[in-house]
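>> received
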Amino acid sequence: MRGLAAASATQAPARERATTLTRVLTLPAAEPVAELWAALHLRQLCGTKLARLARRAQRFTPRVSLEPPDGLLLEVRGSLHLFGGMTGLRAALLEMCGEFGLAALLASAPTPLAALVLARAGKATHVMERAELIGKLAELALGALRWPPEVLERLKSSGVRTIGAALRLPRAGFARRFGTAQLASLDRLTGRTRELRIAFRPREAFRRRHELSCEVESHAYLLAALMRLLEELEDFLKVRQCGVMTVECRLLHRQAGMTPCVLRLAAAGADARHLGGLFAEEFQRLALPQAVRALELRAGTLLPLTPAAPMLWQPGEHGGGAGSEAHALIERLQARLGEAVVHGLALLDDHRPESCWAMTAPPPPAARAVCTVRAVRAVRGSAPPLSLRRPLWLLPVPQPLAMRAGLPWRRGLLQLLSEPERIETGWWDGEDVARDYYIASDIHGVRLWIFRERTAAHGWFLHGIFG
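>> returned
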């Protein structure tokens, strides 16, 4: 018994330590800091000004959220002490809206939707705690929630016209009669469930300026200075895994205006050496009005950049493709010869051969890949019927052919190889045609695409030549 008592005495401190440790481990988690949202309700639609306003509002808090087309939300609990409390912050926010020429009404509440509803209802109220939130919302009209009109009409016919009346309805019956989306909206309004807002992120842009140590006219020296900016651009893009389709270099002079030099790439890129080579071609065609004293580099819109994986087969081996050589060639030609001489082709919805295509800007890589796949399938697949084939060389204007005994003649009598293909269209724009097209062969075996008019005179014309 004495030994048992001794053992119990020695174990007591251990039990106490375990109990103390358990109490430490089971302490309640710290409550999240209560949020305070400020809502700016703009009295007129501001369009593109909303994003600019959001960018400016980030000087007050990093948590800014858009509520198009006329609302802006800011989480300001941690910013109150920096701007003299809610009174100073309110004055600063309204002054910011005035700089954009916008009239706004500001309200604040512990939940973002409640702040918006108060501002929309014209209540410049500042509710700091959740305990007083429902009392401030109860008398507001349901229209401030911007629910669908049919839901508001059904609630009105049931005698429910205010937010307080809607909150007093049984939850299960409300969800069954008016929808779970509206019930979830009431929960976000009162803070029963937390609303996660998407934070506004301004579009990133790259602009760098380099002041030269002296005024220079040498293209080689300018290119060497530009390469430093291009290397900065490459680092900027690689960190963000982005590329650009447009890069502009502005050459600044002391007295003359700015000289622009713009690169438009055929595919999104970020390689400084490649861009430097293209700018070198552009500089050779550039005439400077005066010496240059500064360079400024501006990148266009940032686009996602997916690095191209090397191909298993080299070009020409077992059907290996050309990889990125196509857009690199297009960019080199544009830089050396100018954008006006490099074009893409687009199909138009028209049956007339001279009107079914148009010259466009070079297509993006995805479109070129689709065209390449279609071309490969066309080569590997079965050949189309003879009457549906089209020549590679289409004459700008059909050339009239001589006739002998009603048959077409070009350095000899032409032999018709196909049945007629009739094209009769264009009545809606005054350029209507009525033609019967044939594939013909001349005395030298050259295949031609000719047609005969179906209108009076029934003349023969040459419109294309097959390769």
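>> The longest strand covers residues 242-253.
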